[in-house]
């Protein structure tokens, strides 16, 4: 199968301000991809490029093997829900479904009607009067009923309360199981991503810090604890992501690309996804101090 | 039918948690041969987790010889982990309750009881090389 997303030296600038710098990555097919990073890191830019809403300044991007928004057929293969799950406030839920039916060649009416009934949306209700959770469910329903091969969501759950957030992710995972659709979603909520994503892209300061299948990432990241100075000389291929020292002890979070960690004389343990991502976000935030104002870390625990 | 739950703070990977919950249900006799596991769609709709996680857990259970998928029907239990020892559970549980009662009357608090039990349990089940 063709990769869901493949970029080579992808860059995007708005005037002189770079939003994305030299992004090269490949996301295999059949993944639920989590896109993580602080505000202003370039997440929305990457998602908008993938959806074909904007064009790159330099480099290439392929989605499902083709240029985004290359033609009507390519548009039909992707369902894109922009930030804050926008809907037409003046139209009813039923109007939205009718519009979806008219505008999308592969529209699945049974799926749309079934989902609207299942989540308890009233077809006569104006979309402007829906709760945040209901609006997100409506946007998800329309995106899924167009029967795309890839669903792209920009911060779909950020503004939802915990109950609505869980309901949204439940619906989304049901669609993934039922329709075998790929998903890319950005979020600040690491614990949510930990449940649903099997591939991660960590983006900070317009650059990719980390990308890969969650299983591989977890298998190659460790927390090492040893006496102070005991870890000063690490073998090549073991990269320190984060280090903390007391007068007695050193604690390192490392990425081991060569399988050298198990041979080290230190307490070693694997990290969970949240700690691993936080280590990368922290490194980027610390690196930004001095160069320019530090970015706000919005990763919520 | 059994119900799954997920603790993302436990440090145990989600797919392992599903595997362990089925094994536990088999050991306790909550699941027996012929019973059906929830479908992948039912599990993801309840837990809001990646379908691949459920598939991986079911493949692992199949690999362990505990379940068999029947295409179009679902995944069914083909091997039970509950044996004759199941009958012994209840009297053992009563004895354990008696011991807990004794420990409390001796002045041990919950943490001390747990620590005493766990260290003793680990020592008694330790495999000497």
Describe this structure in a few short sentences.
Chain A: Pfam families: ABC_tran (PF00005). Chain A is α/β, with parallel strands linked by helices and 301 residues long. Chain A contains 9 helices and 13 strands.
Describe the structure in your own words.
The complex is a heterodimer of chains A (301) and B (129). By secondary structure, chain A is of the alpha/beta class. Chain A folds into two domains: 210 residues, 3-Layer(aba) Sandwich (Rossmann fold); 70 residues. Helices cover 32% and strands 28% of the residues of chain A. Chain A has nine helices and 13 strands. In chain A, the strands form three sheets. Chain A has a six-stranded mixed sheet, sandwiched between helices. In chain A, helix 4 runs antiparallel to helix 5. The C terminus of chain A is likely disordered. Chain B is mainly alpha-helical and 129 residues long. Chain B has two domains: 64 residues, Arc Repressor Mutant, subunit A, CATH 1.10.10; 40 residues. Chain B contains five helices and two strands. Chain B has a two-stranded antiparallel sheet. The mean pLDDT of chain B is 89. At the A-B interface, helix 6 and helix 7 of A face helix 2 and helix 3 of B. Chain A: One of its GO terms (molecular function) is ATP hydrolysis activity. Chain A: Keywords: ATP-binding, Nucleotide-binding, Transport. Chain A: It comes from Actinoplanes auranticolor. Chain A: This is ABC transporter ATP-binding protein. Chain B: One of its GO terms (molecular function) is DNA binding.
Q: What's the oligomerization state?
A: heterodimer
* pLDDT < 50 stretches of chain B: none
Spatial order of the strands forming the largest sheet of chain B: 1-2
CATH topology of the largest domain in chain A: Rossmann fold
Would you tell me which CATH topology of the largest domain in chain B applies?
Answer: Arc Repressor Mutant, subunit A
Count of DSSP H/I helices of chain A:
9
Secondary-structure element order of chain A, as H and E?
Answer: EEEHEHEHHHEHEHEEHEEEEH
Going by CATH, the homologous superfamily of the largest domain in chain A would be P-loop containing nucleotide triphosphate hydrolases
Q: Please report the distance between the alpha carbons of the first and last residues of chain A.
A: 36 Å
The N- and C-terminal alpha carbons of chain B lie at a distance of 41 Å
CATH class of the largest domain in chain B: Mainly Alpha
Number of helices of chain B: 5
Looking at CATH, the homologous superfamily of the largest domain in chain B is Winged helix-like DNA-binding domain superfamily/Winged helix DNA-binding domain
- Count of beta strands of chain B: 2
| CATH architecture heading of the largest domain in chain A | 3-Layer(aba) Sandwich
Overall 3D shape of chain B: elongated
Q: Label the structural class of chain B.
A: mainly alpha
Output mean pLDDT of chain A.
Answer: 90
């Amino acid at each position: 199968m063709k990769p869901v997303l493949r970029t080579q030296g992808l860059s995007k600038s708005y005037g002189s301000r770079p939003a994305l710098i030299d992004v090269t990555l490949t996301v295999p097919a059949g993944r639920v991809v989590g896109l993580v990073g602080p505000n202003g890191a370039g997440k929305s830019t990457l998602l908008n490029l993938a959806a074909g809403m904007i064009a790159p300044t330099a480099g290439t991007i392929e989605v499902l093997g083709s240029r985004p928004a290359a033609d009507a057929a390519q548009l039909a293969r992707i369902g894109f829900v922009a930030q804050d799950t926008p809907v037409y406030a003046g139209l009813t839920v039923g109007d939205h479904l009718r519009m979806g039916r008219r505008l999308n060649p592969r529209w699945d009416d049974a799926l749309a009607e079934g989902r609207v009934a299942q989540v308890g949306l009233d077809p006569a209700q104006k979309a402007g009067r829906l709760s945040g959770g209901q609006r997100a469910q409506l946007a998800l329903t329309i995106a899924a009923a167009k029967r795309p091969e890839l669903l792209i969501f920009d911060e779909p759950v950020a503004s939802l309360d915990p109950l609505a957030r869980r309901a949204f992710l439940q619906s989304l995972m049901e669609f993934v199981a039922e329709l075998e659709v790929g998903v890319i979603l950005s979020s600040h909520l690491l614990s949510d991503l930990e449940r649903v994503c099997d591939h991660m892209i960590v983006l900070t300061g317009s650059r990719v810090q980390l990308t890969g299948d969650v299983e591989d990432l977890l298998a190659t990241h460790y927390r090492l604890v040893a006496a102070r100075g005991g870890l000063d000389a690490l073998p090549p291929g073991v990269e320190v992501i984060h280090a903390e020292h007391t007068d007695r002890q050193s604690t390192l979070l490392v990425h081991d690309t060569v399988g050298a960690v198990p041979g080290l004389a230190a307490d070693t343990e694997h990290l969970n996804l949240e700690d691993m991502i936080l280590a990368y976000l922290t490194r980027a935030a610390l690196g930004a101090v001095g160069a320019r104002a530090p970015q706000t870390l919005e990763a919520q625990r | 039918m059994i119900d799954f739950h997920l603790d993302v703070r436990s440090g145990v990977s989600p797919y392992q948690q599903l595997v362990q919950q089925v094994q536990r249900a088999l050991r306790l006799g909550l699941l027996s041969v012929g019973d059906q596991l929830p479908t992948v769609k039912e599990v993801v709709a309840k837990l809001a987790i990646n379908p691949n996680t459920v598939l991986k857990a079911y493949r692992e259970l199949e690999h362990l010889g505990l379940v068999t998928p029947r295409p179009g029907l679902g995944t069914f239990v083909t091997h039970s982990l509950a044996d004759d020892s199941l009958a012994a559970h209840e009297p053992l549980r009563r004895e354990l309750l008696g011991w807990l009662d004794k420990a409390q009357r001796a002045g041990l608090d919950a943490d001390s009881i747990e620590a005493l039990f766990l260290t003793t349990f680990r020592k008694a089940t330790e495999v000497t090389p």
